[in-house]
From TrEMBL:
InterPro entries xref list: Cholesterol_7-desaturase, Rieske_2Fe-2S, Rieske_2Fe-2S_sf, VanA_C_cat
Entry protein name: Aromatic ring-hydroxylating dioxygenase subunit alpha
Ranges where the Rieske domain occurs: 31-132
Superkingdom of origin organism: Bacteria
Keywords associated with the record: 2Fe-2S, Dioxygenase, Iron, Iron-sulfur, Metal-binding, Oxidoreductase
Gene3D superfamilies: Naphthalene 1,2-dioxygenase Alpha Subunit, Chain A, domain 1, Rieske [2Fe-2S] iron-sulphur domain
Amino acid sequence: MTIPTVNIIEACRKAADKMANKDTPLILNEWYVAAFKSEIGRNLFARKILNKRVVMYRTLEGQAVALEDRCAHRSFPLSKSHLDGNNIICGYHGFKYNSSGDLVEIPSQKQCPHGIGIQTYKLVETGPLVWIWLGDQQLADESKIPQLPWLESEQWASTSGYFFHPGNYVSMHENLMDLTHLTFLHANTIGTPDYASAPYKTELKEGHYKLIREVVPTTLSPVWGETTGLAGKETAARIATSEFLSPGLHQVSVSFYDSALDENTRQTFKIHTAHILTPQTNNTMHYFIVHGRDFALDDEHIEAFMHEQLFAAFQEDVEGLGALEEVLDDRDQYHFEISVASDSPAVATRIYLKKRAEQEQV
Ligand code: FES
Ligand SMILES: [Fe+2]
């Protein structure tokens, strides 16, 4: 067995120093998805995001609001309290807060001091998603929310799901950026043997990184073959783009077609998958997924089959990266990792995440 020389190990460590990892501070001044729209209603809904406890609900008028999940009196979680109209009444000693976070009533005294309350956070709903800004509220700019027009298009159908992921969000971004792992981690679900060695190209623009892989010709795995009618064909094409859009969002877009047919007349089948990464802590993450397709829009059977197959594959990511996280926890002075050419967009992503985190620390 050959182990890398001291020089190589040192070079690897130097490179790794520039990249975000599980110990890098989380980026606060950014839009993240806090919940699916359907999760927020007239109940107090708690979720910890970026190490902050948040409680969310809808006012009687239907507006989604987010507040710090902590009573200003003795820190009782407001999510374990109850709603009275648009107000929350703390479940411990009854302090009452309005939906702007202002303390408006104290049961044990007539006077309620003005100007005291709890933090509120800006929420914006787009399509099925609710975005939150947990950093400096003055910097929350709605125009910076990543756009995914297909989520609201009638030309697209989608299915969605959620995983609580026992790993950090940096590793998940890296996982999504280089789908070489499809051949191995997903050998029994969405991967094919030829995927890892297929040609690829990269696009590296500050804050927007892409890896485009062209697997042509190939044979499609059942989830794509059986749903597009290309099953069993050895001339299928699979053109996949992995795209980092923000610290909280990665999109995978794939086109499938029969490469033996004339390009002007053949049908192309497209899918998009929004991989929505919302750190809970440095070691855990909320993993929301929306998977869209531009074909078989009303076919419930295809939708159910795709959902089952794809979410089985995403479960493999969650389990695989959960296992990886345990190894990262054990890393010591002998730890090093080497990168290869196909890692370049993932490395660029990690360098960008670290830079963003460091800018906030300043
Ligand atoms: S902790 Fe909420 S009222 Fe006392
Ligand atoms: Fe995966």
